[in-house]
Backbone:
């Protein structure tokens, strides 16, 4: 079912960009916001290593 939010060409570009990012870390993929790093202690290290700052913590 098509997503009414994004035309197919935009959705493909988004899928490609973030799909590639899921395979290896890319610096500055998402603009980070300041937060207390101690909040990340509950998150597994393998997840934190792939974090781009989106929606943190």
Residues:
């Amino acid at each position: 079912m098509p997503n009414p939010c994004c035309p197919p060409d935009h959705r493909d570009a988004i899928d490609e960009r973030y799909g590639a990012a899921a395979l290896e870390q890319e610096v500055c993929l998402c603009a980070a916001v300041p937060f207390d790093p101690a909040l990340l202690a509950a998150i597994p290290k393998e997840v934190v290593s792939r974090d781009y700052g989106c929606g943190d913590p």
